[in-house]
Amino acid sequence: MNNPKVGDHIDDRYELKRHLGESEVCTLFEAVHRYTGRRVVMKLLRGSDGNPDETEAMLLRDAFALGRIRHPYLVELLDAGISHSVPYVVTALLEGRSLEGLLAARGTLTPEETATIGRQIALALEALHRNGLLHGDVSPANVWIVRSPLGEEQVVLRNLQMTYEPRKAVPLEGPRRRSGSFAYRAPESNHNGRVVDPRSDLFSLGVLLFECLVGRPPQGLASERSDGEFPSLRVLRPELPGALTFAVERCLRSSTSERFSCARDLVGSLEATHIAFSVTRFLSGSSAQGLRAITPLLEAPARRPPPPPVRPPPVTPLPGANPLPGTNPQPVVAPPALVAEQPSGVSRRKVARAAYATPVRIIGHHGVMEGRIEDISTRGVLVISAKALEIGVVVQMSFALPGNGVIVQTNAVLRWVRIAPASQRAALGFEFQVPPLALRNAVEIYVAQRESQSDINDIGPAR
Asked: In CATH, what number is assigned to the domain containing residue 70?
């Protein structure tokens, strides 16, 4: 099976339903277990010819190591095996949105949101480190916001095939040793022969938290950072709780001996802020911090500029009316014909939307561009891409529908753009022009199912 495709069966148990993209060494699919109906993510080793190599051995070894770890903030490993000489790993399907997408769209997070996310990631890292494993790529792209089985929002740290044993001094020339996101790597990860350990993951987490608070990583991360000075978070955000500033800045020390000695110490420092247990509303459709706050221009069609105010006619006192001294006569209200009407194209109706991650192909005068949808409604989508387009451009979009995985094409117009300073990735708000009936039906069903789940746990005001 050199080129797996949608519809193929793996080990006579999993049916590939939707292509999710490519990692460094694997092709990712959404799959369904034929006997339980559970939707999962299947990672198939790409380019395997049946001959074992170091990458294949590492993939299976990591699967064996991760199989003994279960933690609410780590993506769950469900299965692994070899089918037609191709190794595969099966993990839980994450339905939510990435921290990368949130930062691209919003810029920054609140101190409460940052401390809460940081504590949960640190707890996930503690579980890995306690079992002799490192993550190796703690970055916003690998942090997802999902709903727990109880309906509460939480983080899940993914991309766990990056792990390896930190007890050995491993040179960085081997497979995947340089695969961490460069902007988030610890200084020791950029030098051959230097040992990385759990404190390297804590450095990466510090960069991530710094970006959540400031909107960009510390200066100098794109160059040889071990020789540079980081900007002071105390100066950039003096209003932040001192315990939160201390925790982030200690993670960012260039010397490993000056960082937290373990993830548990970082958890304690974040808990000392007393804001690390906040309830987030990243996935809520009704909260001001939810999806509607992220994609405001997809709420309604583009609004026309308001008309100039209509000046009422001069006030003429009624005959025989003598106003009291020191008072003004009551103004005459303009007749209905003079009152400006509400533009007919403006809709006050809220559009229900839900998080939905899937690859998308965008075709226009710029050529072909690949991106990732992060949330969807019957009116439009939020797309994360490597580059921006000009507002108002009309494109053709091609992506898999939620639920059935059928590829659909539709035209859309770009309503707004925001670029993340750290990754230079763009958040693009597209509005469908005339969406096909199949798209509307599939999205309505998908969003309704997600809204019914979130309404049970939504403590916000009723809509």
From this structure: 3.30.200.20
